[in-house]
Amino acid sequence: VARRGRIVAISSVAGFAPLIGRVGYAASKHALHGYFDSLRAELADRGVAVTLVCPAYADTAIDRHAIGAEQKPVKKRTVGRLLSADEVATAVLQGVEREARQVEVSWVAKSSYWLWTLAPRAYEHLMRNRS
After folding, report:
1. Domains, the chain, ranges and CATH?
2. Hey, which residues are catalytic here?
């Protein structure tokens, strides 16, 4: 690894807060956070930084073509509008310029982060009532 630089990992709100109905996805994103948070600590002395980017709901081909266990299209409920790839890319660049450790992309991601951090039971209550 170089003696300076920045690693950017694309994660999700599911990396720091639970999402009902997306257990496997949330588990994979929590693992991603654990890996890159640990890597950040290991590489800090070498001048390598890590930024985790956490969009809320983004418009992706994976979401448009997702198939569930019964081989039927998966219907997702989202909060707010879907983010475009350009919006996420812009947030990545802005986060790198700010040397951010984590970037929550959209008001949904920001409010989810703070609600989960400060009032996890309230966050869980909201999740249960919208699922």
Report:
1. 5-130 (3.40.50.720)
2. 25
